């Protein structure tokens, strides 16, 4: 008998997460404790529940720019090696609790040097936290692989430097590069030298595109920058026409993305908060999934969106009537699109994901 699709049962399913920001996933209690330890006095609340409410409500702003404003507080308490290690370690713990078996966690090292750390020291601390979290999980009998993407802020001028950082740490846990931040006025082509550097070094990268800005952002990310994946990419729906009789016509950009199997790192709850879509039910995720684009389910920012991978999947199930086979497909989509080596991806798909879903399907 098929296992019912409840939140508790979805938590039992293995998951692969490609788009999650370290500074958007702290525990509220940890933010408070780190603020107290390091003398950060700018928090808008002094207890964990109130602080969680602040982050959730402030992020639900209808604007990507306003959505990003609360990050000043999480970044503000992540300025020492100890704080970075703790946040990374707890990130792994929280993912294990949600049965995430593979995760690529991204963060912008340039935002964590206000206390005097070098970029390399910042990355060292985060990778050590991930590694220690993995070891603890393995000791407790859990399967999880956590890797890192280093992100450059698209409004700044350090993207080439951050790309070089990604290559320096490519054999130590960093598997790729990203640019993030407000899209309007900061097209990905401003950072062509960073992307060229990554390509010249046979390295992988994703680009936030098509979240708060339209098709030109996606076009540039793919045609000029050569992105391996798209962060969000919801505005691709503007290149898809659904006719009155249900027939669908893809524009040239949408067609090439589907033909090339370009992965979409979709973050439904976050997209509602930023105003990219009006509701989960109106999210283009289902249209893209039915058209067989390579869609993946992601959290974006677990604290800001008050979410987990299980909650994101449940919201999609409730909105679109998905079954276990759909959730398995989205999970395998993500695992196929991961930036680790092919044998590692295949092992997680064949030895972990498929067997565990077989038990749930019954």
Folded structure, characterized:
It is a single chain. The protein is α/β, with parallel strands linked by helices. The chain has 16 helices and ten strands. The protein has helices at residues 7-12, 28-38, 48-59, 64-68, 71-76, 81-97, 119-139, 159-168, 192-200, 215-224, 252-259, 268-273, 285-290, 309-320, 324-337, 342-361; strands spanning 15-21, 100-107, 145-153, 174-180, 206-209, 229-232, 240-242, 248-250, 264-266, 295-297. Helix 2 packs across helix 3 (48-59), helix 6 (81-97) packs parallel to helix 7 (119-139) and helix 8 (159-168) packs parallel to helix 9 (192-200). It starts with 6 loop residues before the first helix and ends with a helix.
Main sheet: which strands, in order across? Answer: 1-2-3-4
- Shape, principal axes of CA atoms: globular
Tell me the major beta sheet. Answer: 4 strands, parallel
Please count the beta strands (DSSP E, at least 2 residues each): 10
Number of helical stretches of at least 4 residues: 16
Percent in strands: 5-15%
Q: Which residue ranges are poorly predicted, with pLDDT under 50 across at least 5 consecutive positions?
A: none
Mean pLDDT score: 95
Derived structural class = alpha/beta
Q: Considering DSSP H and I runs of 4 or more, what fraction of the residues is helical?
A: 40-55%
Element string (H = helix, E = strand):
HEHHHHHEHEHEHEHEEEHEHHEHHH
Alpha-carbon Rg, integer: 19 Å
Distance between the termini: 5 Å
């Amino acid at each position: 008998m098929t296992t019912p699709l409840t939140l508790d049962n979805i938590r039992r399913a293995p998951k692969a997460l490609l788009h999650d920001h370290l500074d958007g996933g702290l525990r509220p209690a940890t933010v408070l404790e780190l603020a107290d330890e390091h003398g950060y006095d700018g928090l808008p609340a002094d207890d964990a529940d109130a602080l969680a409410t602040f982050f959730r409500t402030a992020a639900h702003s209808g604007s990507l720019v306003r959505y990003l404003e609360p990050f000043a507080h999480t970044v503000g308490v992540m300025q020492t090696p100890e704080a970075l290690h703790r946040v990374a370690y707890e990130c792994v713990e929280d993912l294990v609790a949600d049965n995430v078996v593979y995760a690529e966690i991204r963060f912008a090292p340039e935002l964590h040097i206000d206390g005097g750390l070098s970029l390399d020291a910042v990355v060292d601390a985060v990778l050590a936290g991930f590694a220690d979290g993995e070891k603890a999980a393995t000791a407790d009998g859990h399967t999880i692989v956590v890797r890192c993407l280093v992100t450059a802020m698209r409004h700044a001028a350090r993207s080439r430097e951050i790309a070089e950082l990604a290559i320096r740490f490519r054999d130590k846990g960093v598997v790729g590069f990203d640019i993030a931040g407000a899209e309007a006025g900061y097209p990905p082509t401003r950072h062509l030298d960073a992307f060229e550097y990554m390509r010249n070094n046979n390295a992988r990268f994703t680009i936030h595109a098509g979240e708060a800005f339209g098709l030109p952002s996606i076009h540039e990310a793919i045609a000029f920058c050569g992105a391996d994946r798209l962060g969000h990419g919801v505005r691709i729906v503007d290149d898809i026409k659904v006719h009155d009789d249900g027939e669908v016509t893809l524009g040239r950009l949408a067609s090439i993305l589907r033909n090339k199997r370009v992965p979409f790192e979709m973050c439904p709850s976050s997209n509602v908060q930023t105003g990219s879509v009006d509701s989960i039910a109106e999210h283009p995720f289902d249209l893209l999934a039915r058209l067989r684009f390579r869609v993946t389910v992601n959290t974006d920012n677990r604290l800001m969106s008050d979410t987990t991978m299980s909650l994101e999947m449940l919201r999609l199930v409730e909105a679109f009537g998905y079954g276990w086979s759909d959730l398995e497909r989205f999970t395998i989509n993500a695992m196929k699109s991961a930036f680790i080596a092919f044998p590692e991806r295949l092992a997680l798909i064949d030895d972990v994901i498929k067997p565990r879903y077989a038990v749930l399907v019954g």
